[in-house]
């Protein structure tokens, strides 16, 4: 599959900053951040990383929940897992998710 441009939207501003900052050495997460950067460079694609709120990234939120279920090692999918299909459909037809803000 050829993906010329990849836009990654992450709900953690700290992670976005660490991945976008080429001069920063976050010692606590250095190895993990470097591994992520190597994976992003591996594809030969143009990568854009930006922040979004969790509500706007429900598919990623579902995948993160799958990742916390205690499975060890790397998990890859040939097709989207069933847990994400409803959120993927909602995203494809443009369903919006309101965000509550306390003022």
TrEMBL record:
Domain RNase H type-1: 3-65
Organism domain of life: Eukaryota
InterPro entries linked to this entry: RNase_H-like (IPR053151), RNase_H-like_dom_plant (IPR044730), RNaseH-like_sf (IPR012337), RNaseH_domain (IPR002156), RNaseH_sf (IPR036397)
Gene3D superfamilies, alphabetized: Ribonuclease H-like superfamily/Ribonuclease H
CDD domains xref list: RNase_H_like
Record GO terms (molecular function): nucleic acid binding; RNA-DNA hybrid ribonuclease activity
Pfam families xref list: RVT_3
Protein name, UniProt field: RNase H type-1 domain-containing protein
Upper classification of the organism: Eukaryota, Viridiplantae, Streptophyta, Embryophyta, Tracheophyta
């Amino acid at each position: 599959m050829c993906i010329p441009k990849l836009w990654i939207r992450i709900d953690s501003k700290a992670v976005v900053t660490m991945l976008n900052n080429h001069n920063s050495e976050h010692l606590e997460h250095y190895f993990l951040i470097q591994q992520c950067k190597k994976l992003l460079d591996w594809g030969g694609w143009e990568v854009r990383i930006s922040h979004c709120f969790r509500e706007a990234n429900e598919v990623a939120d579902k995948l993160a929940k799958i990742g916390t279920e205690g499975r060890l090692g790397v998990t890859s999918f040939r097709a989207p897992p069933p847990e994400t299909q409803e959120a993927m459909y909602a995203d494809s037809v443009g369903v919006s998710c309101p965000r509550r803000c306390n003022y």
